[in-house]
Design brief:
The protein contains 23 helices and 14 strands. Among the domains are: about 100 residues, Arginyl tRNA synthetase N-terminal domain (Gyrase A, domain 2, 2-Layer Sandwich); about 90 residues, no CATH class. Helix 8 packs across helix 11. Helices cover about 50% and strands about 10% of the residues. The structure holds one RNA strand.
Length: about 600
RNA sequence: GGGGCUGUAGCUCAGCUGGAUAGAGCGACGGUUUCCUAAACCGUAGGUCGUGGGUUCAAGUCCCGCCAGCCCCGCCA
């Protein structure tokens, strides 16, 4: 419907200009705004134009009179009358617009053979960086990584669908002081590993990390060795680097299991990647005169952000011991991502998907990058924050024992619960299915439920995690959406040829028209998600589409329809399936034929 | 103390550039199956949109104050 909306916008502007030439001229370059918006209710048609209301005062006319004048001009426009039925003036002066049925049917027809479902591809797109997931080496992925990973992946998918070249970057924590203790511990417990390739399987990295941490806390000699090890690592000592590489490889393999399971593709580019560029960050800041030495640390003081004592807050880019910190790395990353190749990604949009607790940090770092002139004109640097994952008690999600919830346990439990649900349903319905069917459905439904529950909520608010709610078979959940697709697949199995060519579409039932209108919203929804980076908008849409489809399915027969109606109804089924499948795909959710 | 986010139905949440009588799901109550998977559909009840001002033809939405909850605040990321 975006094309139609654009056409209407132009026609409305033309009509307003002709109706009120003087006001138009006074309004300046932009002219008058028709305030075109989707109709707030179905009975108002497809669109509403509210632009008459604000003109009442300046024109000293009744708003309905103004609306009437605009409508008269619209009716004189042949392009408009071919597109719309006669406009209705309602309420205080809203202009309600209804698209001609044949134009809606034509839009549906044009989408039937279109893989993009009416979504226009971007032209001459520059790279977009989506920085997400970002676990720490030598630690396990836990519930804290869930939202970044799922939301980031979905945003990347939407941007890719639009045609942007997307760099999905995993900014893993693969550098820093904790490696001193890890390497020291590794060298002591598994010296063989450094000599022979694959000599040892580190096994449980979490346990390994815990042991190293315990020794670091308890043993002073170990502490000293660890500190020396950090210096050796940073100095490029080959053996230290080798130990570091082993730890990273091991972690990488563990992360990859989760990513494979979630069907998420990521390019690892950890913090260490930016090491060679850190000194240049300091030099660059010095050159533009932003750098200030304070308490021995190199800082940039922020504008408009003050601390406890009312003094400006600093971003520390070089510690008093000469070391760099995360702000330095983030600045180097920003610089690299916007810079031209070969030492840069030439991105024009850089998106960080991290929890909202880091908002302050990003405000500071972004301001420094901006003032240093590292953000090219016309490009965007965005923090996409999200809230905490909470348990049903409203507190931060923990296991019963009070530990952090491991991501793989969380996914396992979702799949197990989905399987138990499925088995009990099969029993109730006296259905029998092979084990591989049960495993496949349980796994698809379980993972879909986890992803959808997260994505369907506005990411800014905290998210209350509940297996029971996300796996519920009714309501705004993954199983409900998957079921709508299963119903369509059922029609195809029972003899409905969804790919049959349909020369002319004709619809008679209100449920058909409701479905048509819902299907045609897809392009606008994608445009909105691309702009606002809110996947829950796509979820809401897919849920509403499923509801409208289920109503249609329930109340309008497809396979038993007469020969006049059958092809058109099959076409609606096909487009519904394509839209749902594509939409769920953009959420990173795979679909089922039967469940 | 400063900053950020949040506050909408019993519960979990939508609410896009301010627009018509504030929406959905769950839960509650009632109904629908010789028919494409009832994991569905239809209906009923339920809200002073935290609070007090302000701007506007029009405020859940914008501005200011206050209250409550969560998060962040110099050398961790």
């Amino acid at each position: 419907m975006l094309r139609i909306a654009n056409a209407l916008e132009t026609q409305l502007r033309g009509a307003m200009q002709r109706a009120f030439p003087e006001a138009w001229t006074e309004a300046g370059e932009a002219g008058l705004d028709p305030q075109l918006a989707p109709a707030s209710k179905p009975e108002f048609g497809d669109f509403q134009a509210n632009g008459a209301l604000p003109l009442a005062k300046p024109l000293k006319q009744a708003p309905r009179q103004i609306a009437t004048a605009i409508v008269e001009q619209l009716q004189a426009d042949a392009a408009f009358t071919q597109l719309c039925l006669e406009p209705q003036i309602a309420g205080p002066g809203f202009i309600n617009l209804t698209i001609r049925p044949e134009r809606l049917a034509a839009e549906v027809a044009s989408r039937l053979g279109d893989e993009r479902l009416g979504v226009p591809p971007v032209q001459g797109a520059a790279p977009v960086v989506v920085d997400f997931s970002s676990p720490n080496i030598a630690k396990e992925m836990h519930v804290g990584h869930l939202r970044s990973t799922i939301i980031g992946d979905s945003l990347a998918r939407v941007l890719e669908f639009r045609g942007h070249p997307v760099l999905r970057l995993n900014h893993v924590g693969d550098w820093g002081t904790q490696f001193g203790m890890l390497i020291t511990h590794l060298k002591q417990v598994a010296p063989d590993a450094l000599e022979t390739a694959d000599a040892i399987d580190l096994g449980d990295l979490v346990a390994f990390y815990r042991e190293a941490k315990k020794r670091f806390d308890d043993d002073e000699a170990f502490q000293t060795t660890s500190r020396e090890e950090v210096v050796k690592l940073q100095g490029g000592d080959p053996l230290s680097l080798k130990a570091w590489g082993l730890l990273c490889d091991q972690s990488r393999r563990e992360f990859q299991k989760i990513y494979d399971r979630l069907d998420i593709r990521l390019s690892e580019r950890g913090e260490s990647f930016y090491n060679p560029f850190l000194p240049a960050v300091i030099d660059g800041l010095k050159q533009v005169g932003l750098l200030v030495t304070d308490d021995g640390a190199e800082c940039v003081f922020l504008e408009g952000v003050s601390g406890k004592d009312g003094k400006p807050l600093p971003v520390i880019v070089q510690k008093s011991d000469g070391g760099f910190n995360y702000a330095t790395t983030d600045l180097a990353a920003i610089r690299y991502r916007f810079a031209a190749a070969p030492d840069g990604d030439a991105a024009r949009r850089v998106i960080y998907v991290t929890d909202s607790g880091q908002a302050n940090h990003f405000v500071g770092v972004f301001q420094v990058a901006e003032r240093a002139g590292w953000i090219p004109d016309g490009s965007r640097l965005e923090h996409v924050p999200f809230g905490l994952v909470q348990g049903e008690d409203g507190k931060k999600l923990k296991t019963r024992a009070g530990d952090t919830v491991r991501l793989r346990d969380l996914l396992d439990e979702a799949v197990e619960r989905a399987e138990a649900d499925l088995r009990s349903r099969l029993q109730d319905e006296e259905r029998s299915e092979p084990e591989n069917f049960i495993n496949h459905v349980a796994s698809t439904v379980g993972l879909a439920a986890v992803k959808y529950a997260d994505l369907s909520q506005n990411r800014i608010t905290n998210y209350q995690f509940s297996f029971d709610r996300m796996l519920a078979l009714q309501g705004n959940t993954a199983p409900y959406l998957l079921y709508a697709l299963v119903r369509i697949a059922g029609i195809a199995r029972k003899g409905g040829d969804l790919d049959a060519s349909t020369a002319q579409l004709q619809f008679s039932e209100p449920q058909e028209w409701a479905l048509v209108r819902e299907l045609l919203r897809f392009d606008a929804v994608i445009a909105e998600v691309e702009e606002e980076l809110l996947p829950n908008r796509l979820c809401s849409y897919l849920f509403e589409l499923s509801q409208v489809f289920n109503r249609f399915y329930d109340q309008v027969p497809v396979l038993k329809a007469g020969p006049d109606a059958l092809p058109s109804r099959l076409a609606l089924c096909r487009l519904s399936a394509d839209t749902l499948k594509t939409g769920l795909g953009l959420l990173g959710i795979s679909t089922l034929e039967r469940m």
